Amino acid sequence: MAMKKKKSTVPGDEIITLTNVCKAYSAGAPTLKNVNLHIKKGEFVFIVGDSGSGKSTLIKLLLRELTITSGYINVMGYDLSRIRHRKIPKFRRNLGVVFQDFRLLKDRNVYENVAFAQRIIQKSTKEIKRNVPSILAVVGLAGKYKAKPKQLSGGEQQRVALARALVNKPTILLADEPTGNLDPKNSWEIMKLLEQINENGTTVIVVTHNREIVNAMQKRVVALKKGVIISDEEKGGYIDED
Ligand code: ADP
Ligand code: MG
Asked: So where are the chain's domains?
């Protein structure tokens, strides 16, 4: 019998593909409607939009925390409607995630919070001892290994969360309002770190409400409104709703 040629469903340099994606939480109106989004390897993308517009839902679909209601979604070559449950941990290994509320282990110090991510993927103690200090230096926390989260400022806590997200060298970094709890100075510092991480090859997707930063950074901006992508622009600005 002749071998069937394996059909490629996305172009080679595309790392995230959503085609006509709808997501409804219940029988009511869908939260995301007919979303089409194509992101290439190495891009930096801002996702903006009012509260309730579906930004976090989109992030959760990319993480396969939620499944789509209809359409097609592919992340890093994984068709997320068909991925088997036992393959999900392997898929997630290549994703780093950061949230607004840091989500650190409160009873563990900085070093342990970051090392934890490496233990989950069974890195050896030797590798952990090499990788954790090196990523803590990248985020500017070289002197804070022993501090517990409550001894740190918000900006420092977010740097720990960022180090934890990055220590396993993810292909894609997803950040859902990473500066939502930070003052302007710390917000800028976190965004500059995200930019630096992107320049080193990681695909970075950032949900944010920070109009000033979005306008200044001149990246691709995808705007959602009531579950619909209303604009998608290279070197875009914040879409004004007023
Ligand atoms: P955003 O992150 O842009 O603020 P979300 O994606 O969190 O928006 O929410 C979009 C819409 O989906 C909101 O109307 C919200 O109430 C609804 N929604 C979010 N999560 C759930 C859920 N678990 N169950 C039902 N509705 C939800
Ligand atoms: Mg949200």
From this structure: 105-169
